[in-house]
Each structure stands twice: as structure tokens, then as C-alpha cells.
Amino acid sequence: MKKYKVLDIFSYVSKNIIDLNQLEDIFHNGINDARYVVNGYHAERYEQGCKLEENIKMAVCDLENEGKNIAFIKEHKKIIAVIGYKELLCEM
């Protein structure tokens, strides 16, 4: 199983609704399992060419410039957080 290190989280909702630890947990548990949904939230990898709001586009651009992988945490279809991460090398 692949392992990941979260480096950045850009959240667009109040921590009273969902905090950074919860967002990171959703990312780790759901990034390799499209069926993983908790309270309507799920993780999804960024795919170039998808339509993004301007503030989300800026976060994605910053993370791409830093060479980081990008994922979104969504509530249904709405992006509520942008995650910048790296894939860790796993020794066998």
C-alpha cells in the first residue's frame, strides 16, 4: 500500500465544521479508495483540465510550482480543501 505525507492543506471551511486533522484523515483513508466517504466528505486526486474556482486554481498553481501532488477533499461535488502531498518511498 502506498504511503503519503501531507505537506499543505488549504481549507475553505471553518474549523468548527471540519478541522485540519479530520481533513488529513479523510485524505489518508480515501485517496486510494473512491468509495471511502465520511459524513459526505471524500478525497479525490486532482486531474488537469478540470474547472476550478479562482481561489482554488491559485492554490493548485502554487502546489504545482512546488512539485507537490494535489488532491481535493470534497463535500459531494464541492471542493472544501486542497491538499498538497508527496508519495513516500516504501521499502519492501
Task: Give a description of the structure.
There is one protein chain. By secondary structure, the protein is of the alpha+beta class. It has one domain (3-88): Calcium-transporting ATPase, cytoplasmic domain N, CATH 3.40.1110.10. The chain is built from two helices and four strands. The protein has helices at 20-30, 54-65, and strands at residues 3-11, 41-45, 69-75, 78-88. Strands 1-4-3-2 form a four-stranded antiparallel beta sheet. It is globular, with a radius of gyration of 13 Å. The termini are close together. The relative contact order is 0.29. The mean pLDDT is 93.
Structure summarized in a few sentences:
The chain is α+β, with helices and mostly antiparallel strands and 92 residues long. The chain has helices at 20-30, 54-65, and strands at 3-11, 41-45, 69-75, 78-88.
List the helices and strands and how they pair.
Blueprint: E1 3-11, H1 20-30, E2 41-45, H2 54-65, E3 69-75, E4 78-88
Antiparallel strand pairs: 1-4, 2-3, 3-4
Helix-strand topology string: EHEHEE
What can be said about the biggest beta sheet? 4 strands, antiparallel
- What is the percentage of strand-forming residues? 25-35%
Q: Categorize the overall geometry.
A: globular
Largest sheet, spatial ordering of strands: 1-4-3-2
Structural class, from helix and strand content?
Answer: alpha+beta
CATH fold group: Calcium-transporting ATPase, cytoplasmic domain N
Uncertain segments of ≥5 residues (pLDDT<50)?
A: none
- CATH secondary-structure class: Alpha Beta
What count of domains describes the coordinates? 1
Mean model confidence by pLDDT: 93
What is the overall number of helices?
A: 2
Q: Which oligomerization state do the chains in this entry correspond to?
A: single chain
CATH architecture: 3-Layer(aba) Sandwich
What is the helical fraction, as a range of percent? Answer: 25-40%
- In CATH, the homologous superfamily goes by the name Calcium-transporting ATPase, cytoplasmic domain N
| Strand element count | 4
Tell me the radius of gyration. 13 Å
